[in-house]
UniProtKB/TrEMBL annotation:
Domain of life of the organism encoding this protein: Eukaryota
Gene Ontology MF terms in the entry: glycerophosphodiester phosphodiesterase activity
Record domain GP-PDE: where: 47-365
Catalysed reaction equations from the record: a sn-glycero-3-phosphodiester + H2O = an alcohol + sn-glycerol 3-phosphate + H(+)
Signal peptide interval: 1-24
CDD domains xrefs: GDPD_ScGlpQ1_like (cd08602)
Record organism: Musa troglodytarum (fe'i banana)
Enzyme Commission number(s): 3.1.4.46
Protein name as it appears in the record: glycerophosphodiester phosphodiesterase
One GO-annotated biological process of the protein: lipid metabolic process
Amino acid sequence: MRSSLSLGGFASLLLFSLFNLTVGRPIYPLPSKQDNKVKQPLQTSRPYNIAHRGSNGEIPEETVAAYMRAIEEGADFIETDILASKDGSLICFHDVTLDDTTDIAKHKEFADRKRTYEVQGSNITGYFVVDFTLDELKSLRVRQRYPFRDQQYNGKFSIITFEEFIAIALDANRIVGIYPEIKNPVFINQHVKWPHGKKFEDKFVGLLLKYGYKGAYMSENWLRQPVFIQSFAPTSLVHISNMTDSPKIFLIDDFNTPTQDTNQSYWEITSDSFLEYIRNYVVGIGPWKDTIVPPVNNRLTTPSDLVDRAHAHNLQVHPYTYRNENSFLHFDFHQDPYSEYGYWINKIGVDGLFTDFTGSLHKYQEWAAASATDEKSAYGLLHKIARMISSYD
Ligand SMILES: *[C@@H]1O[C@H](CO)[C@@H](O)[C@H](O)[C@H]1NC(C)=O
Ligand SMILES: *[C@@H]1O[C@H](CO)[C@@H](O)[C@H](O)[C@H]1NC(C)=O
Ligand SMILES: *[C@@H]1O[C@H](CO)[C@@H](O)[C@H](O)[C@H]1NC(C)=O
């Protein structure tokens, strides 16, 4: 009995050490008020780990807890969608309606706020963010979007403002970038009015500048407070280009979705002539990954040349969205998220990935870095030289 007991004790100690080994990274204490100069810098040697709506695979999207978890798990950037309340505050929220990811249905006091508005060419009915003041939005609680994900955090967290989101990134004890989207700008500018004729985009850039986000990609300022501004609307990106030199990413929707502002088709905005035009305003594109490698019957087909053509225009490519669940993984990946990351990073050669599971992407990248062979390093060096030559061009 005694020896088997101690054997059991040894086994659990071994399991404990193994667990710590597989985690392989310190849990960062948060938040921290350390000066950015002494913080661990942003990694810039491998594709960016962009925490899509925070670590929303685990915790309800765009909440403080989801962002803190993403930072703890190794995100390079925390990503968010910016919308506006009725009284003009900028908030972090994805949908124009509150129905799918909050407890609005339980709030009898708001029962008369249901409306139908036209959004990007279709009529949508629900409780719209733009019909609620910030105080009212703060009285709601966020819940998990997908029924197959952890529901235990439903009702625990509130909607946060853009300023609160910025504070989370600035408070992290290593340098963590932000990746905010100017969401539905046409709709927001129709429904929310600011004093002195200011537009949604002006308020958005104003807040970034107020908190010190400025400077071209890889400049000293940028490395201290990294940011990518993203939008599906070319006119928003062009409009803000005179207000900030922060790097911008042009998002590209599905094949059949025209741009919300200029009504241009997928084929038009991915043409060489459009890439040549938009590169004056942006440092990269953010396409839906299934438009780069279109699946048929849930199996990958031949990749398009979009990534190569974007790189030829010196544009980065940050596709969205990587998700661990079997229902999202194409059959070619054998239900293994590492296999999907390996394909996109090594075969397709993307420069950043929007993921719902920051922890998985981080562990993949740590594992890949540790197991890189000489051949891979030589390949990496060649890739680097090729990129230096193309940027010198
Ligand atoms: C939305 O509804 C309004 C009012 O019923 C209608 O006039 C409009 O054509 C509809 N728009 C779309 C895109 O269906
Ligand atoms: C930006 O500023 C330049 C120089 O002042 C001007 O020529 C250009 O039209 C402006 N562009 C936009 C989009 O406002
Ligand atoms: C957008 O473009 C399509 C295709 O050219 C056209 O059929 C449609 O009427 C346009 N919509 C708007 C709102 O201009």
